Amino acid sequence: MAGNFVSTTNPCRMCRPLGACLAFRGIEDSMVLLHGSQGCSTYMRRYISSHFREPVDIASSSLSEKSAVYGGAESLKRGVKNVVDRYSPRVLGIATTCLTETIGDDVELIIGELLRDEPALREVEIIPVSTPSYSGGHYNGFHDSCVALISRLAQGGPRGDGVNLFPGFLSPADIRHLKDVMDGFGLSAVIIPDISETLDGGIVDSYRRIPAGGTPLEAVRRTGTAAFSLEFSAATPGRQSAALLLKESFSVPAERLPAPIGISYSDRFFQAVSRRAGRPVPEHFARQRERLLDAMVDAHKYLSGKRAAVYGDPDFVLGLSSFLADVGVVPAVIASGGGGREFISELELACAHLEDPPEILTYTDFGEIARAAAASGVDLLVGTSKGNHIARELQVPLMRAGFPIHDRIGGQRMLHVGYAGAMALLDLLTNTIIAGAQDELGYGYSYM
């Protein structure tokens, strides 16, 4: 075998079915079932809950050793019937796991047999998604699920004036802000998936097994009649694009953009919406941009020339890297557990004006990120809480952003997108650097 193979020991990604769980969580009256061992659903419930601080139910077909040998068909059928009986979902996503993909369970065939034997279950939209964790990460499972939802549910018809918005894996706060933007332009938008309430809800009088909120099933069906689709997926392969699927299936015009993180990508987003809506950017958002530019001037003396290592999901890292370059920070190391041709091409465009080209790591782990960050002499890390140990080893600050954030509270309320999101990130970034400098001084308050 040519070259030296080094196994991944701490990957910069999570399991693929975890992304499916998050995507289906953004569909109204939806439940998800993992076809695999009980441990998979337990791990993912814990992982998601510790970031979003919300109770999350994830069902499991709970395969035993016998099922692993002889197949999990009966376990899956029993699991589906139990979930429908206890939760009464309108949509049931079934995500496979490493175990069931390895033994070769044909989920489509199994569900077909179940619906033949139990015709009452046809009232539930059962949507299987292939999500083996040994192929891709949570972001792939997220996009896979969006494509599966559109493939199974979207319907054609007379062209309407609605808009489809596929935001990718952003925070609930981001989704709420995107709704405000669409409303500001007078556009009726269907956001898929919409986790703005289901993963960041309030206190209610009585517990609901399936939380209120999410994209209504009827709205998903209407996506084939929309005037156009916008999708934040510039770093994602076309085969995982729900917007392109709608274009191919129903001739819905599609525009794929980077996630609008930072002023440059936010400009592209607002210009695209303005062009599609046929009206100028509302004054409210124009004023946000003016305040952002003023804040960038204020922060310049703290940020200019600083070097950062940024890591996380491909589309999110692309946006963060553009944001850092916008505000004068050099993204010296750009790393993701995914990547590919689209990811690298967009990064090269975003960083083309930099004198010091970044080191781009794709399909990487935290061992490689630590090595590259140390070699590049970075001043800080930007990414999830999983990089905290690297920041401690290098004795540099960590600006937490993205998913997961397990060692701080409020990750679900972090705003990243648009001019308002860029302002929030700018304050966080600048204050992270100032706090690091104050820690080095050895005493408290000081003008910086």
Summing up helix and strand content along with how strands pair, one would put the structural category as: alpha/beta
Q: How much of the residues is beta strand, in percent?
A: 5-15%
Q: Based on CA inertia axes, which overall geometry fits?
A: globular
| CATH architectural name of the largest domain | 3-Layer(aba) Sandwich
**Named CATH topology of the largest domain:** Rossmann fold
Q: In angstroms, what is the radius of gyration?
A: 22 Å
Under CATH, the homologous superfamily of the largest domain reads: Nitrogenase molybdenum iron protein domain
CATH class of the largest domain: Alpha Beta
Distance from N terminus to C terminus (CA atoms, Å) equals 55 Å
In the sheet with the most strands, the strands line up as: 11-10-9-12-13
